[in-house]
Amino acid sequence: MSNKLMRKYLAFFKNQFSATIYYRGSILVWIFSNLVFLTVIVSVWLSASSTQSLGGYSVSELIGYYLVGFFLHWVVNWLPFYSTADEIKSGEIVASTLTKPFSFYWRKFSEEAGWHAFAIILGLTMTLILAVVFQHQQLIAFEFSWNMLFWALIAVVLAIFSVFGFSLCLGLLAFWFTEVWTVDTLFWAGRNFLGGWYLPISFFPGVFQTIIKILPFRYLFSFPLEIFFNKLSLKEIILGIIISLFWILFFILLYRVMWERGRKAYTSFGQ
Question: What range does the domain containing 213 cover?
Fold first, then answer.
């Protein structure tokens, strides 16, 4: 990648970072909605017996799971779907990318990085405050391990690329369809139910767990948490990383096919 392109992608990053700081409303709404969910789910698990193990987790571990998951939302949800679909439907993509000598993939990645550079700071601040409060109330517990943290960080990076690739490909459907928001709703349903946000994967029956471990949704969210809370053996971690890499490669190849064909078949309302 040339220095000229690097400077261009850095400019996309800076522009999005500045816009995120200026238009903070969406982030505040996201904070509020996630805090509401976290409050509800903590209340539900606190009503359970503190000595009862649920899906392989103690109640204090479950509360810690959702607290760490609250922060993970800010880290891994790189979602170019919305801006991609809007650009295609409005015709803006013609001037912004189709006639430009740079990669749409890396342009979107740079913009998402700009958004998350600010959002992660807010998310980390909120999570640390909540962690102090929960720890003071003796609501959370987990065994910290540098080894598990190392593997969890690898899984987080892979989750970022998986979410980004998945979301980008869904956005590219706007090349062929005028209504793509239903697809995004299905994505979130799969991600929340099969990805471990509503319930940890271990709560599902064995046969469903086997299916979930093959599908991409687990690797968008749950996999790093399972590692962090020491629920996986090293063999299971390595296998999960291999499956995650497969899905990343799949979405990259799918993006290339969709992008090349979409450009040729482009019939957006903006043209």
Answer: 3-264
